[in-house]
Amino acid sequence: MRKKIIAANWKMHMTQSESEAFITTFLREIGDLDEVEIVIVPPFTAIPKVTELLTQTQNIKVGAQNMHWERSGAFTGEISPAMLRELFVRYVVLGHSERRALFGETDEIVNRKVRAAHVEQLRPIVCVGETLEQREKGNVEKILARQLRGSLADVEAKELHETVIAYEPIWAIGTGKTASSGQAQEAHAFIRQTLREMSDDATAEKIRIQYGGSVKPDNARELMSQPDIDGALVGGASLDPRSFAQIVQAGAPNEGL
Question: Closest Cα to residue 135, out of 174, 95, 94, 190?
Fold first, then answer.
């Protein structure tokens, strides 16, 4: 059975002091819950502080929001996977729709980052998702297949085991709109089928697929109860420690909100 993985993507929010206040409250709220894997994804400047605060925890990992594919070089303003590993980062979010739309990242660029992440033993959280226009034109599967095959090209099965996919319909990110549980499950099932075609049944069954897009405490349990939804990549609702704790609790077996 796939263990749920729930990640807090803070985006360009949270100073070091704000991060400390968040972690202190969040740890108190979740207690000793360990049925769900938790990932905190702060901005780069807060990674050392968050890592320090989580030193004594076993089930909470630290992630980064992006990275370059090169280990070092003349890339002003960039962060390398080796630098992240030295900060004890375990996960890295790649191909988020904001990176694709605002910074021109293509599937090819995402693929280079995914392969570089695995070299440094970082676990990529690879984001895919369609716009509202693409959905209305009936192109959801076409878009998802293209993004998956492009972003995961030449990634071996053993590396796919260590890769997380995040399905984030772009029309639901930060809008308050959420895909229905049925819509989300349909997309997740298609993603898993595509992964089967790209690898094999056993590999596809092991890969965890998160849902992202206006996940909140009041819809988290229903979304994560679907057979192919293995967690959540949470944006806005992850900025409040109590709200995020409720979402984490919703993903745990036999836990109530």
Answer: 190
Predicted TM-score (pTM) of this structure:
0.95
Q: Is residue 257 part of a domain?
A: no
Mean pLDDT, rounded, for 90-101: 96
Q: Which domain holds residue 68?
A: 5-251
3-state secondary structure of 189: helix
Reply yes or no on whether the pLDDT at 130 is more than 60.
Answer: yes
Assign residue 86 the CATH number of its domain: 3.20.20.70
Share of the chain above pLDDT 70, in %: 98
Residue 256: pLDDT over 70 = no
Task: Please say if the pLDDT value at position 98 is more than 80.
Answer: yes
| Residue of 1 and 203 predicted with greater confidence | 203
Cβ partners under 8 Å of residue 21, min gap 6: none
Hey, which residues are catalytic here?
A: 96, 168
Q: Tell me if 256 is assigned to some domain.
A: no
E-strand ranges in the chain read 5-9, 37-41, 60-64, 91-94, 123-128, 164-167, 208-211, 231-234
58 in any annotated domain: yes
Q: Is residue 150 part of a domain?
A: yes
CB within 8 Å of 63: residues ≥ 6 apart: 7, 39, 40, 41, 89, 90, 91, 92, 93, 125
pLDDT at 233 over 80: yes
For 169-205, letters b (16+ CB in 10 Å) and e give: bbbbbeeeebbebeebbbbbebbbebbeebbeeebbe
CB within 8 Å of 188: residues ≥ 6 apart: 167, 209, 211, 226, 228, 229
pLDDT at 255: 52
Look at the chain and report how many structural domains it folds into.
1
